[in-house]
Specification:
Blueprint: H1 8-15, H2 35-45, E1 50-55, H3 60-72, E2 77-81, H4 90-95, E3 105-108, H5 111-120, E4 124-128, E5 134-135, E6 145-150, H6 158-163, E7 166-169, H7 181-202
Parallel strand pairs: 1-2, 1-6, 2-3, 4-6, 4-7, 5-7
Helix pairs in contact: 3-7
Length: about 200
């Protein structure tokens, strides 16, 4: 790759940020993975696929944190809507500690339609909802799962919530009424991971 040395002012102008550590690179647009290709990969590589669906996560820090945890917790792919969602930008990549480059991400126009497709493939849709009566720790989330994490303020949208097979909550105490999207998603993903590890250990 050709290397060109420029002043720090030029780097700042090109990258439009001061957070560049003195280096930048010109790259192609982020390579999203087609949904059908993702589902074929599941058939080949995963006994019980695990997907993460992000319903209007607009904060790059939250998206990056969720992607980082997804990579660590064995998630096979992340699905995001095309509109009203953070995109896989350099800010998301930094927040993910590089995990953005190592997990397939699919961008879809209609999240509800995508949920319908996943159901046809035998994948259960589990929505994370603070008001749900089912604590995730008492729910069976060990099978083929697509976990839906909602936006930072309003959570999962009503239409998406209606399409979920089950809604689960995270029990909590204290004066803060909710976890942020990244923290809540991390707890849920690792409960799924824990249940799967235990189920596999019994076989």
């Amino acid at each position: 790759m050709p290397v060109r040395y420029v002043s720090s002012e030029t780097i700042r102008s090109i990258l439009k940020t001061d957070n560049h550590q003195g280096i930048g690179a010109e790259v192609s647009p982020y390579p999203f993975v087609d949904l059908n290709r993702l589902l074929v990969t599941f058939k080949e590589d995963a006994d019980a696929p695990l997907l993460l669906l992000l319903d209007h996560i607009v904060d790059p820090q939250n998206m990056g944190g969720l992607i980082r945890t997804a990579s660590c917790a064995g998630v096979n792919g992340v699905i995001i809507p095309k509109d009203r969602s953070a995109s896989p930008t350099p800010a998301v990549s930094r927040a993910s500690a590089g995990a953005l480059e190592h997990i397939p991400i699919t961008q879809v126009t209609n999240l509800v339609g995508t949920i319908r497709t996943l159901k046809e493939k035998g994948i259960w849709i589990i929505g994370l909802d603070q008001a749900a009566d089912n604590p995730i720790f008492l729910s069976d989330v060990s099978g083929p799962i697509a976990l839906v994490v909602g936006g930072e303020e309003k959570g999962i949208r009503s239409l998406v919530r209606q399409k979920c097979d089950m809604l689960v909550s995270i029990p909590q105490t204290g004066r803060i009424d909710s976890l942020n999207a990244s923290a809540a998603g991390a707890v849920a993903m690792y409960e799924i991971f824990r249940q799967r590890q235990y189920a596999f250990a019994r076989k």
